[in-house]
Amino acid sequence: MQSKKIVKPNPRKVGRPITIGAERFVGMRLPSALLDAVDKWGAANDASRSEAIRRLIERGLATEPTAKRRAAKREQ
């Protein structure tokens, strides 16, 4: 009588590991000229491309919307 061999399931999972609490990925396409400008800004500010894009977006969101600025200029 042969004994049966017990096969353990593979504990490794295929694919990218789950990152709990990580930020979400956003992919986008940019024109070459804009991407070159982002890279240039990043080099001048010691930031990688990803960090440069994050910082520039944060700066843009921190400023007043253009319509409010135009209205304020008209009132002066």
Query: Mind telling me the C-alpha Rg?
Result: 25 Å
**Total strands:** 0
Strand content: under 5%
Rounded to the nearest angstrom, the distance between the terminal CA atoms is: 99 Å
* Number of contiguous helices: 3
Rough shape? elongated
Average pLDDT for all residues: 84
Low-confidence stretches: none
Major sheet attributes: none
Portion of residues in helices? 40-55%
One letter per element, helices H and strands E, the order comes to HHH
Can you walk through the features of this model?
- The protein has 76 residues and is an all-alpha fold.
- The protein has a domain at 32-75.
- 49% of the residues lie in helices and 0% in strands.
- The chain contains three helices and no strands.
- It is elongated, with a radius of gyration of 25 Å.
- It starts with 31 loop residues before the first helix and ends with a helix.
- The model has no long low-confidence stretch (mean pLDDT 84).
